[in-house]
């Protein structure tokens, strides 16, 4: 299996300056390549420029500008061009599918934070001083940078990426052939219902509380953003205020990730089969469409946008997508079965008699079947239905 390992870098002041310059030069290459593609398409003949054409120009670019482009790894520059090519391919794929295209945009210098080295040993070397007590990674043009390695690296290192997060630097290793670590069989089969009132509810009746990290940090974030709004653009005071805002956001992100890892680990340790709803989170957080008032031209009727906005913030704060991704990786590593099921009517179906009605859901917390009178917590009832559907999928799988 394939896994990634992320470690904090401890560069010297000179190395930090070199890392920053490396990002700036790759950012410049990315924007120049995007400009070339735009200009070629706007030409009368609508010339198409592809990755192979731009990669072939790298040798001349490095020769013309040896101080900026020539000092960095050729492979990392190719990876930057592939990154642009991937964005262009996604754009054309959305155009053909009739979706909102979203043409690739020029990146600001603060919005380009990662440089990838496609192969360990080509422009970079992980654990470049294996006989030393301190782990280091060698980067072309930067040198041997100290790494805070807090856990062992498993498998074979394939790609190495350097990432900037605020004023910190990280190295990300993508490794193949990572051995799985299957856990002991428990014999349990559960379903989980993701929500806002509770982060998740298990079919055995267990509720995992929603920590609401963004809401807890809302006041501190509001103060930081107010201070930022009062600063003059381009000033040193504004740069400091931006760092304060970014620090608050990073803390929320780390807290959310930590909670997701712990919740996912508890699930895979406690059950062999885990069922969950196949959620389309992008559609769930979409803003409601305006409702024109038929009696008053130019006036719009209430559409519940304010209430929906609050729900959307709560969904984003819960971080369902991040959690499900982490759960999938941990389940694969532990040898567990993760089964996504159809989410339709899971909260309206009675698990005893099978009756489906919107009237079964009395309110946010109570489920009462209008046919048989079965009463249960609404979230637990949905989790039980999810577990039943996951069991049906599991039974039908061998016959498929």
Poorly predicted tracts of residues: none
Q: How would a crystallographer describe the biggest sheet?
A: 7 strands, antiparallel
If strands are numbered along the chain, what order do they take across the biggest sheet?
A: 2-6-7-1-5-4-3
Question: How are helices and strands ordered from N to C?
Answer: EHHHHEEEEEEEEEHHHEHEEHHEEEH
Structure in words:
The chain contains eleven helices and 16 strands. A seven-stranded antiparallel β-sheet has the order 2-6-7-1-5-4-3. A five-stranded mixed β-sheet has the order 10-9-8-11-14. Helix 6 (218-229) packs antiparallel against helix 7. The protein folds into two domains: 3-176, no CATH class; 189-213 and 252-396, Nucleotidyltransferase, domain 5, CATH 3.30.420. It has 400 residues and is α+β, with helices and mostly antiparallel strands. A hairpin with a 3-residue loop joins strand 4 (136-139) and strand 5 (143-148). The mean pLDDT is 93.
Features:
400 residues, alpha+beta, 7-stranded antiparallel sheet, 16 strands, 5-stranded mixed sheet, Nucleotidyltransferase, domain 5
Summarize the topology:
Blueprint: E1 3-10, H1 13-42, H2 51-56, H3 58-64, H4 74-97, E2 114-117, E3 124-126, E4 136-139, E5 143-148, E6 156-165, E7 168-176, E8 189-194, E9 198-202, E10 207-209, H5 213-216, H6 218-229, H7 236-270, E11 273-277, H8 281-284, E12 291-292, E13 300-301, H9 305-318, H10 320-334, E14 337-341, E15 366-368, E16 375-377, H11 378-396
């Amino acid at each position: 299996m394939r896994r990634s390992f992320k470690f904090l870098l401890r560069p010297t002041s000179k190395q930090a300056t070199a890392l920053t310059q490396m990002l700036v030069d790759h950012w410049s290459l990315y924007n120049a390549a995007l400009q070339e593609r735009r200009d070629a398409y706007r030409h009368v003949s609508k010339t198409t420029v592809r990755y192979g054409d731009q990669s072939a120009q790298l040798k001349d670019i490095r020769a013309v500008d040896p101080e900026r482009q020539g000092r960095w790894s050729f492979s990392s520059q190719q990876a930057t061009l592939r990154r642009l090519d991937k964005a262009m391919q996604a754009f054309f794929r959305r155009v053909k599918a009739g979706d909102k295209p979203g043409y690739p945009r020029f990146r600001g210098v603060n919005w380009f934070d990662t440089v990838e080295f496609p192969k360990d040993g080509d422009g970079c070397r992980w654990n470049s001083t294996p006989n030393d007590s301190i782990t280091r990674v060698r980067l072309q043009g930067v040198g041997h940078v100290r790494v805070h390695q807090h856990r062992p690296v498993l498998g074979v290192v394939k790609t190495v990426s350097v990432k900037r997060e605020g004023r910190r630097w990280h190295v990300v290793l993508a490794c193949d052939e990572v051995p799985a670590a299957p856990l002991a069989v428990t014999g349990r089969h559960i379903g989980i219902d993701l929500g806002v009132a509770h982060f998740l509810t298990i079919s055995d009746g267990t509720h995992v509380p929603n920590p609401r990290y963004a809401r807890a940090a809302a006041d501190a974030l509001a103060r930081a953003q107010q201070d930022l709004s009062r600063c003059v653009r381009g000033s040193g005071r504004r740069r400091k205020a931006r760092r304060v805002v970014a620090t608050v956001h990073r803390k929320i992100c780390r807290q959310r990730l930590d909670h997701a890892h712990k919740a996912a680990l508890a699930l895979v340790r406690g059950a062999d089969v885990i069922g969950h709803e196949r959620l389309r989170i992008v559609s769930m957080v979409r803003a409601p469409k305006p409702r024109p008032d038929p009696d008053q031209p130019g006036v719009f009727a209430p559409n519940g946008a304010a209430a929906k906005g609050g729900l959307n913030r709560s969904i984003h704060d819960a971080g369902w997508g991040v959690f499900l991704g982490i759960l999938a990786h941990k389940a694969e590593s532990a040898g567990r079965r993760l089964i996504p099921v159809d989410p339709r009517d899971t909260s309206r179906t009675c698990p005893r008699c099978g009756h489906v009605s919107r009237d079964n859901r009395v309110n946010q917390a109570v489920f009462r079947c209008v046919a048989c009178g079965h009463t249960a917590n609404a979230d637990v009832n949905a989790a039980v239905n999810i577990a039943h559907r996951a069991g049906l999928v599991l039974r039908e799988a061998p016959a498929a």
